[in-house]
Amino acid sequence: MRQDQSSSDEGDVAQIQEMCLIFLRECPSGALHLHEFKKIFGVQSSSPEDSQFLETIFRSFDTNQDNTLDFIEYVAALNLILRGNLEDRLKWSFKMYDRDGNGKLDRNEVKRLIRILYKIKLHKNEVGLTPSQICDRIFDLVDDNNDGEITLSEFMEGAKKDQWLMDLLNLDVNTSGWVTQNCRKLP
């Protein structure tokens, strides 16, 4: 088992190194702008949903909100995507949902991201629920005090107690696979 873990870690490190080299090649200035981020991940001619999803990811990693990712922000993003633990990924997912940054999710914030995910991921699984029904189900399962908002703790606890919800809230669209696949589209 330890050998398998070591092999997996080496593979993750190799992926991170490859993407760091791409960063340095594409952004010698050390600042990665949104349009360059989209280019690196091959989203320029993709669907509007892919573009919107990538913009959301970009903004979540732009920790100093200067509309660029510096090398440290970029490496932190890669580390989370490729090697992050469940708790860190859930916190990141919450941050992505929380558009206004107030530390709580309202129905509009949740519906917005569900619509994106629905087009990228959920329709493929034939869920049988509309984005509004998915939002209602999330609030039924997670909003413990029924105040119409989801706090980080409600989000974390709710995701841990329901596998369907965990899969959805974790934004697990095979992010590391998606990053690796799209990063390799570069010439």
From TrEMBL:
<keyword id="KW-0479">Metal-binding</keyword>
<dbReference type="InterPro" id="IPR002048">
    <property type="entry name" value="EF_hand_dom"/>
</dbReference>
<dbReference type="GO" id="GO:0001917">
    <property type="term" value="C:photoreceptor inner segment"/>
</dbReference>
<dbReference type="Pfam" id="PF13202">
    <property type="entry name" value="EF-hand_5"/>
</dbReference>
<keyword id="KW-0519">Myristate</keyword>
<protein>
    <submittedName>
        <fullName>Guanylate cyclase activator 1g</fullName>
    </submittedName>
</protein>
<dbReference type="GO" id="GO:0007601">
    <property type="term" value="P:visual perception"/>
</dbReference>
<dbReference type="GO" id="GO:0005509">
    <property type="term" value="F:calcium ion binding"/>
</dbReference>
<dbReference type="GO" id="GO:0008048">
    <property type="term" value="F:calcium sensitive guanylate cyclase activator activity"/>
</dbReference>
<keyword id="KW-0677">Repeat</keyword>
<dbReference type="InterPro" id="IPR018247">
    <property type="entry name" value="EF_Hand_1_Ca_BS"/>
</dbReference>
<keyword id="KW-0449">Lipoprotein</keyword>
<feature type="domain" description="EF-hand">
    <location>
        <begin position="130"/>
        <end position="165"/>
    </location>
</feature>
<dbReference type="InterPro" id="IPR011992">
    <property type="entry name" value="EF-hand-dom_pair"/>
</dbReference>
<feature type="domain" description="EF-hand">
    <location>
        <begin position="49"/>
        <end position="84"/>
    </location>
</feature>
<keyword id="KW-0106">Calcium</keyword>
<feature type="domain" description="EF-hand">
    <location>
        <begin position="85"/>
        <end position="120"/>
    </location>
</feature>
<dbReference type="GO" id="GO:0120199">
    <property type="term" value="C:cone photoreceptor outer segment"/>
</dbReference>
<dbReference type="InterPro" id="IPR028846">
    <property type="entry name" value="Recoverin"/>
</dbReference>
<dbReference type="Pfam" id="PF13499">
    <property type="entry name" value="EF-hand_7"/>
</dbReference>
